[in-house]
Amino acid sequence: MKIEYDVVVIGGGPGGYVAAVRAAQLGCSVALVEKSELGGVCLNWGCVPSKNIIHQASLFRSLDEMEAIGVTIDRAQLDYAKVKANSRAVVEQLRSGVSGLLKKNKVDVYSGSARLLSARTIQIDSAQELQTNNIILATGSSPIIPLGFEVNEIDVLSSTGALDLDALPKSMIILGGGAIGVEFAYILRSFGVDVTLIEAASQLLPGADEDVAKLLSQSLQEQGVSIHVATRASAVIRSDSGVVVSLESQAGVHEDLMAEKALVVFGRRPNTKNLGLENIGVSPDKTGHLAVDEYGQICPGVYAIGDITASAALAHVASYEGEVAAEHIAAASNEQNLKTAEASAPLAVYCEPQVASFGHSEATLADLGIPFEKRVFNYLGAGKSVAIGKTKGFVKVLFDPQTQELLGAHIIGYNATELIHELHLVKTAELLPEDVASMIHAHPTISEIIPEVFRSVIDRPIHG
Ligand code: FAD
With contact defined as beta carbons under 8 Å apart, do 356 and 348 qualify? Predict the structure, then answer.
């Protein structure tokens, strides 16, 4: 292996491996350094295993529907170790896919922990050194574990420990009602665990559309999840019989809750420590994130992408930023096209009903003083939703009353995480409401909701 490269990428998650592949495709010699497993958090302990287990949870839940057609199955036969094993098999398969992709694109992969000695020199495990013209930092993030919530992955778990369980507890207190907490609440409750979900903000999914958060809360409660919003946990204490979590509501009411295990999902902090940033004169901000320009540069020739930047901590955002950085590097030497930074990525939460959105919420538009109108179409109005019994939910669009530009879109309901992309295309391609309203959608489909909601924007509603 040579030790001089055009680009060295540190971190092999969805940001790093995509950046490495793209840079190689654009003609650069590329090395990628990964200290753990290729695929990063997303593939190994995030998006991929969680979505696989959510899929299995939904299958288990669908036994209710099977019973409605006369099929009876003994649920006590559930072997959760198999559920986990299935999720790990999917991870293995995709990880070998990433490895193959890097090989195919002739990216040299180094195993070890990398740090910057300068903007041109990387050191791996205090031993080997690589020289390079450009560096892409893609080191991702780790769980935030405040004092008093120490994780032992036995009875106080992080999301990694929760995805690694071979058997389910009888009860679980989930600390944090963001996307990860909500998805685990859905998983665990689907398999019959007694779940309590604690969130300090006044709603689940802080920052999400308020109506979406309300319906989500109501749906999870109907499924049997106990939800405490506007409630702070001050500590988790271990006892012989499990854990005790001390809570304080916004009204100052104290309460101690007991459960077999607790899951701490307060959020994630960027992995920017011990990277040698001081050797290039760069400091992270006080939350640990790195400030970047529109191409992801933190200083000439050094880029930061994914969870270590202040953009949304999402796998697809990391990958996009990886491409932008690679394109910028290659354009610097090959005169290729440059891309501007990502603007409005969709966000998806894979519980039931699913949640997906992009752009502004009503609250952010009001805060910014931006005039807007909204239209809402309920799933109940679509024939397909009724036919398959998935009537809970709505699509909400927020638009500029003058130009009819889409400012934000919010969906809660069946298949929301797929449906959001048609709305995102409207935004990205700058389509007008009449373009979508006039586009024939197959009947019966859930997608028919999209033209329906735009019909109401141009006052031509049929089913609304
Ligand atoms: P990471 O995926 O964190 O990868 C960083 C890599 O860098 C790691 O492999 C790490 O070992 C390596 N590394 C770190 N430091 C060094 C070093 N010094 N030297 C060498 N290697 C190093 N996002 C979604 O978009 N959709 C989802 O459904 C979703 N679900 C999630 C579920 C869970 C439970 C979790 C925890 C996260 C989820 N996320 C989801 C978030 C998503 O995983 C992250 O946004 C994404 O992984 C960030 O990608 P990244 O490339 O920035 O970093």
Answer: yes
